[in-house]
Design a protein that fits this description.
The chain has about 450 residues and is an alpha/beta fold. The protein is about 40% helix and about 15% strand.
Length: about 450
């Protein structure tokens, strides 16, 4: 099957051809753990989890998603709570894992923390200085943007047209306002520092991802992903420092970015205060499956507007789909994902068309289409536990169905009675059956 992704670097839909089909390498920028994730953050996590699981249908995939656990926001938040930074980030990381589990996301192959990779970060900075791409100034180390002629190609930005100070701080120690920090000295109040050749301090944000990617995946990875807000300057800076650190490293072949989650057509963000956390939705009765369905309704590269109606519609569709199904989860391993469903996903992860196809399966109303729908739902993480039927009950219902087709009515009735005694009910349908668990009255 041919797979296509829109590459942000070329802004074109391209055939996916990994460097090594036996080991597809994907790096995605993970959370900065200073608060619980909002659903805008969750969209990015969900999208790349979906890409990971889709690619695993065809390749061996190593998926790295980092944890940023050293950052200005983290230090400020921990200090405001009068909490030790290490214990604070451990608590926030645990919350992150709880919320992504509620969302039904898989664990990545590796989840490195910035603070566990300080030596790798220092090694990369040393190489950049030795190669003439970085310089020391007043206990800081800066990347010299002018030393990388291709700077701006990912984001399609020309430095001569950028307004100094708009996205980067103007500091007198810099040779250029566009140079970005690789290492900074720690302040006394920050209570977080690491020893380095340039004095006690901590890394800049951008260098962390380049170092962690190289440590776990090496040079020349296949996919680098994240939200659209990371395209500039974060991903632009990662390209510059990674390629300059090693001229053998072309870094990422495909750059994938998901669109913003918006509220009233304005980007959802903590700085604007217009955010809703995953935990808040879950606590208010919105299932992780419903939130996943909501994310699937729009193409991952396009903006998706959050509103109460959209979430309510997602919840209704989850109920509709699961109410239609009666299935046994172990048996789903024997059903292949439909080719049409896979083709929609292979076309730049076209989830809206894949969802529409699933609703067509409901319209067919056959036992075969139910199985196909169930396996599609399982792949998307849309199944609810109450619709998972015990293996033996499912087999009995299937046996009864065969007896009915053979007009062995007495045998069929005996099985119905047996199934009912175990707390289930078989509902006959035109081309099959549905099993429901009886409720106590």
């Amino acid at each position: 099957m041919h797979i296509f992704f829109t590459n942000s670097f070329t802004n074109r839909k391209e055939l996916f051809e990994p460097h090594d089909p036996q080991n597809v390498k994907m790096y995605v920028c993970g959370p900065t753990v200073y608060d619980r994730i909002h659903i805008g953050n969750a969209r990015s996590i969900f999208v790349f989890d979906l890409i990971f699981n889709f690619l695993r249908q065809f390749y061996n995939v190593t998926y790295v998603r980092n944890i940023t656990d050293v950052d200005d926001k983290i230090i400020a938040r921990a200090n405001s709570h009068n909490e030790d930074i290490k214990s604070f980030t451990a608590r926030m990381t645990q919350y992150f894992h709880q919320d992504t589990a509620e969302l039904g996301c898989s664990k990545p192959s590796h989840e490195p923390k910035a603070t566990d990779n300080i030596n790798a970060i220092i090694k990369m900075i040393k190489s950049l200085i030795a190669n003439g791409n970085a310089y020391c100034s007043n206990k800081h180390v800066y990347f010299n943007v002018a030393s990388f002629k291709d700077y701006g190609k990912l984001s399609n930005k020309n430095l001569s047209q950028l307004q100094p100070g708009a996205r980067v701080m103007q500091v007198k120690e810099k040779k250029s306002p566009f140079d970005f920090v690789l290492w900074k000295p720690s302040k006394l109040a920050e209570n977080m520092s690491f020893e380095s050749p340039w004095g006690a301090g901590r890394p800049g944000w951008h260098i962390e991802c380049s170092a962690m990617s190289k440590s776990l995946l090496g040079n020349n990875i296949d996919i680098h992903g994240g939200g659209s807000d990371l395209l500039f300057p974060h991903h632009e800076n990662e390209i510059a420092q990674s390629k300059c650190e090693s001229h053998e490293n072309q870094f990422a072949k495909y750059w994938l970015h998901n669109g913003y989650l918006t509220v009233g057509n304005e980007k959802m963000s903590k700085s604007l205060g217009n955010f809703t956390t995953v935990r808040g939705l879950i606590d208010n009765g919105v299932s992780g499956a419903a939130l996943r369905y909501f994310f699937l309704t729009s193409h991952y590269r396009k903006p998706l507007d959050y509103n109460k109606k959209a979430i309510a519609d997602a919840q209704k569709n989850i109920i509709k789909i699961n109410s239609y199904l009666s299935f046994n989860e172990p048996l789903l391993d024997k059903i292949n994902l439909p080719v049409d469903f896979l083709n929609f996903l292979a076309d730049d992860l076209n989830t809206p068309k894949a969802l529409a196809y699933m609703h067509q399966l409901i319209s067919k109303g056959t036992q075969e289409s139910k199985g196909e729908l169930a396996v599609c739902c399982k792949f998307f993480g849309l199944l609810t536990k109450k619709h998972i039927i015990d293996t033996n009950i499912y087999k009995l219902a299937q046996q009864r169905f065969e007896y009915k087709k053979a007009q062995k009515w007495e045998r069929a009735d005996q099985i119905r009675t047996k199934v009912e005694s175990k707390g289930y009910q078989i509902l006959d349908e035109r081309n099959g059956f549905k099993i429901i668990q009886k409720t106590n009255t």
